[in-house]
Amino acid sequence: MTNKNVFLKKLCMTRSEENYIKIIFHLGGNTSTLISTNAIAEQMATKPSSVTDMSKKLAEKGLLHYKRYQGVTLTELGVKVALSIIRKHRLWEVFLVEKLDFTWDEVHEVAEQLEHIKSEKLIDQIDALLGYPKYDPHGDPIPSKDGEFLERDKQLLSDMPKQSIGVCVGVKDTSTPFLKFLDKNQIALGNTIKVLDIEDFDQSLSILINNKKLNISHQIASNLYVKKQN
Amino acid sequence: MTNKNVFLKKLCMTRSEENYIKIIFHLGGNTSTLISTNAIAEQMATKPSSVTDMSKKLAEKGLLHYKRYQGVTLTELGVKVALSIIRKHRLWEVFLVEKLDFTWDEVHEVAEQLEHIKSEKLIDQIDALLGYPKYDPHGDPIPSKDGEFLERDKQLLSDMPKQSIGVCVGVKDTSTPFLKFLDKNQIALGNTIKVLDIEDFDQSLSILINNKKLNISHQIASNLYVKKQN
DNA sequence: ATAAATTTTTAGACAAATCTAAAAATTGGT
DNA sequence: ACCAATTTTTAGATTTGTCTAAAAATTTAT
Ligand SMILES: [Mn+2]
Ligand SMILES: [Mn+2]
Ligand SMILES: [Mn+2]
Ligand SMILES: [Mn+2]
Known about the structure:
Chains A, B: It holds the Pfam family Fe_dep_repress. Chains A, B: It is found in: Cytoplasm. Two copies of one chain form a homodimer. By secondary structure, chain A is α+β, with helices and mostly antiparallel strands. In chain A, 43% of the residues lie in helices and 17% in strands. Chain A is built from nine helices and eight strands. The termini of chain A are far apart.
């Protein structure tokens, strides 16, 4: 067991603290970019004053660097914690889809709860049961036990040129309406998509998927990730 | 969906409230027996004054009957809530043992967390995945979705007469030391036990299990449930 | 450079769940 | 029936995480 994992074990984090760390990570706090109080407040659906209070507490605990009026960045330890929560969230999502017949628009809400369960054995066994999956149902990468993960080579469908071909590998928007729309139009991860045409007027696309022609708006295309075929 | 299940859905219960309801049920609050403030405090590892506060809140919510200085009993709704938590707890315990290779002494701690996850679909799918089990790893019955469950025909091994035969169906003590002791001596649920002799001096038993003779103390026998063979 | 707008922090309050200490009610022994 | 012991409740304080309103710092615009 690494030295960092020992710290992880001793740290006792409340559910609220864990949610702050996770959201700061998603806002880019893993790099040295400073994350603003307001940005965190918006994501947490809370007030900036609450964020300030929590930032002080998390800095005290060694999870982030906080300078008044500047913003925060995660410490190395903070990144570790963030990755461990994201790992749990995404593994539970896979579990729900693979083992319990959940649809990909139902899993997020439940995973938000399950990600806070404290048991190292539990999540490692779930990982094993699932065969150590690399990606969650939305195409997002699952960090390994020691925090490693590969960001996939992907781009937005809306950034693909005419006549190019790609494989659908993820979604940017994970809202139920968007995912239901994809289901209705039989667009799923793994499908091959060819961009037939892009309309000058509104950037809407004509694509070939499942051997069928389909017209989709720019907004749809800008929320679908594909891996370009060379 | 029954009328009561509709109530269950609307009720939003905190983790602490759920734990109080569960413990009151286990103390016998499903009958009309009054449960004392002190008894609840002891089980909850909290102070009587805290129990009084919570009793008022839960009575306000319609989950229990509370009369000052008298004690509490669960309402019909309170019993429903208790059974739904116990159902979740025990199903998760089965899941951990059957699907994730947990041992029967490891499951309780994790189930204490998992029992509070809010998702009807989640627990119903776990139930289905497990093949609708009737008993948990410790031999305790699992309430069905609508709160029905059979208490098993069982008695303590220490209450069995000489020469009688029974099948081990449950444990009274679920502590790790006791369960580890049973593992070490290869005593498991489902095993047939014959009482060969009972020592007058200390009530220790000589039993036949797995075709081997074994001596166990009265304390061990008084924490093992068996179903008597006719 | 100064003023205006925005962001962030502070100060003080609140709800939930807990605690301690003291008061009130109940129970039990004689 | 009385006193003493026990149980239970009340009153007031504490911690966590949040809020509002006001003050302070920073950023943007003129
Ligand atoms: Mn998610
Ligand atoms: Mn996801
Ligand atoms: Mn248990
Ligand atoms: Mn059990």
